[in-house]
Amino acid sequence: MYNRRSFLGKLGSLAVVAGSTTMMPRFLNAQSFSSEEGKLHKLTILHTNDVHSRIEPFPMDGGRNEGRGGIAKRAALISKIRKEEDHVLLLDAGDMFQGTPYFNYFGGELEMKLMSKMGYDAGTIGNHDFDGGIDGLHKQLTTQANFSLINCNYDFSDTIMNGHTKPYQVFKKGPLKIGVLGVGVELDGLVPSPLFKKTRYENPIDKANHYAKILKEEEKCDYVICLSHLGYKYDTNKVSDTVLAERCEAIDLIIGGHTHTFLNEPTIIKNSKGKETLVTQVGWAGMVLGRLDIYFERNFQDKCIQCKNEAVG
């Protein structure tokens, strides 16, 4: 019988591969499972953060990032993975805008339009996404985007963005139900108030726990992802992804942004229930496409995970 013991006991030999692809040594190797023991359901999560209007690759000017990034190469990589995998979820953790003249000239239109063409399923809101003002964010979202912006700790009730974001969204991938929620960094002191107007910041830990519980208990999701633009970690008591992971109860994975942190593999943190929560982030400028392959055993409770971040350029 394919039970929990046999699932957890199937450890294969794992190795860290140099370059753009890494496999997490602490995780189970999905290749060690045989089809006779039970069916595995695979979900591939692709993710970016802090792309900052990097439409073209960095120029070939001798800089350390020359030739890296760029929408065309990322789109080709995403397309290739979609052809290879049945169930793909493409997510972004905020700061789509600001950083190149493309934003200054087009105001975010190009970023939203190209993300839509690449087939992003959802993103969250970063502080720089207000750089064209909340009216500019609303305009580009409502005219150019065919994906959702997800955030549960910005209260937009008294702004033009009211009703145009979601606190969470549920995605059906094969037999799996995946819940995605989003949280953002405090805007006051970081973004000029005329740009975000009457947007109210609410405690991201309280809000994330509230909606994660809904996703697990009411929506019956098999996996809960938080798109976070809080930042990976701080030396102060400022709320970060690592703090959120420690104090969360029902979040399985935090895909972060804001601090431009390059993580070759997710950080594993024990949450308030003693269970493991993963925290990941892939730097900035779209130089790396984050990838997690998650294999669910047929009861959807036991999982094995591989990390295969891929360099763009």
Strand and helix layout:
Blueprint: H1 4-9, E1 41-48, H2 71-84, E2 88-92, H3 101-106, H4 109-118, E3 122-123, H5 133-144, E4 148-149, E5 154-155, E6 168-173, E7 176-184, H6 193-196, E8 200-201, H7 204-218, E9 223-229, H8 241-247, E10 253-255, E11 267-270, E12 276-280, E13 288-296, E14 303-307, E15 310-311
What would you note in describing this structure?
The protein is of the alpha/beta class. It is 24% helix and 23% strand. The strands form three sheets. Strands 1, 2, 3, 4, 13, 14 and 15 form a seven-stranded mixed sheet that branches. It has a six-stranded mixed sheet with strand order 6-7-9-10-12-11, with helices on one face.
What descriptors fit this protein?
313 residues; alpha/beta; Purple Acid Phosphatase, chain A, domain 2; seven-stranded mixed sheet; six-stranded mixed sheet; globular; disordered N terminus
